[in-house]
Amino acid sequence: MTTPQISEIEQEQLIEKLEIFKIHGRDKRGRKILRIIGKFFPARFLSLDVLNKYLEEKIFPRLGRKPFAVLYVHTGVQRSENFPGISALRAIYDAIPVNVRDNLQEVYFLHPGLQSRLFLATCGRFLFSGGLYGKLRYISRVDYLWEHVRRNEVEMPEFVYDHDDDLEFRPMMDYGQESDHARVYAGAAVDSSVSSFSMRCIS
């Protein structure tokens, strides 16, 4: 994560505006779901301190003391735009209170892609303590997600369904042998949102 060019208040507003983190719905076991949209994560505009503060004040208290699950939507994530970096991921994970980590029962990882699978397979056990790697469940299609999550309780952005359609017609994308750049990234809503927001803040 780079040094942000907007203030802490503006960073918090950006997190809220993009709804990167949202607690809603439950999985088939009745556990609350923390939905995280990776494509909406503006890594270039956020500091670790602001992000951890937001999670500590706005998200973790709402999870309560009961078991919960995370639904991480990896669709459309680009290293240069939405990925905070390995050291930042580790710092974010280490900042999560122990009781919250203990209550995390499952991580549904939607549209992981080949690179993500390889990275987590080689580094996941060393990068994350507390058995997080063992809680990962890869979900390659939205339809498969509904086998674990209550369908009518979780909202998904339209680009997630579009990517699913692409995978059906171009299955080699699952294995990293065909690019989905033209369809998924063209005119991405988060890019315009972040750009317009940052320009308003800086001007």
TrEMBL record:
Residue ranges occupied by any CRAL-TRIO domain in the UniProt entry: 14-163
Coiled-coil features, chain-numbered ranges: none
InterPro entries noted in UniProt: CRAL-TRIO_dom, CRAL-TRIO_dom_sf
Superkingdom of the organism of origin: Eukaryota
One Pfam assignment: CRAL_TRIO_2
Stated name of the protein: CRAL-TRIO domain-containing protein
